[in-house]
Amino acid sequence: MTTPWRAGVLTLFPEMFPGPLGASLAGRGLREGLWRLDALDMRPFGLGRHRSVDDTPFGGGAGVVLRPDVVDAACAAALAEAPERPLVALTPRGEPLAQPLVRELAAGPGIVLLCGRFEGIDQRVIEARGMREVSVGDYVLSGGEPAALVLLDACVRLLPGIMGAAESADEESFAGDGALLEYPHYTRPAEWNGRRVPEVLLSGHHAEVARWRRAEAERATRDRRPDLWRSRAADPSRTPAGEGAAPLAARPDAA
Ligand code: ADE
User: Fold this and answer.
1) What is the pTM of this model?
2) What is the average pLDDT across 134-158?
3) CATH C-level class of 172-233
4) pLDDT per position as a tens digit, 9-26
5) 5-156: what fold?
6) Ligand 1: nearest atom to the Cα of 138
7) Does the pLDDT at position 152 exceed 50?
8) What is the best residue among 140, 149, 152 to mutate for testing ligand 1's pocket, by most ligand atoms within 8 Å of CB?
9) Peptide bond into 189 cis (omega under 30)
């Protein structure tokens, strides 16, 4: 058997793993050996009788910072078995997580994630180890652990054998790299609490359904994520030559 995609997590709270990743498809994949997860407690790498992992920030200010020597020793231990894996530090200072990075990481041998805590991680160990810094959004979590779970979930669902073919096709619909948001979904009953499913979906006309979904996806992207809509319009590979902004498909809400 080939070696499974292998995730290592450096954390002060190893009991947070696998957490939600132990359930559902990721959990089944974990139990079946399709991927592997090792949470490594950084505390034993701490210094002195109290196994201290942090210290006050140079220059003053609130809180404490993870020490570079402690983090470096933990990194060395995590990388000992599979050193070719990229190191990623979860921090609100990082590059925003998006599907192209998820795809890149899922296609590799695995990952080692460093979960920040306190005010942050000493920048020197981030640089010395060539870590990639990643954020899961413009908000501040109490630590990198929930962010690590998000990143792992996004990667694991792309691994071979984790999802069925029907679900995996989904990945294309919101790729976060110029693709569209998804169109809305409906199922039975056709009428619920006075709300009817859009008639076109009951029509059986596949081409019309496809057209409607396309238009809804474009509308959602334009209305909810103008940033994605603009980057799409600026992408020449998605815009017919000379047309400028990508045209909206027929608007279902147009009078
Ligand atoms: N740690 C705290 N907040 C975070 C965020 N938004 N993304 C990644 N790691 C974090």
Assistant:
1) 0.90
2) 98
3) mainly alpha
4) 999 999 999 999 999 999
5) Alpha/beta knot (3.40.1280)
6) 6
7) yes
8) 140
9) yes
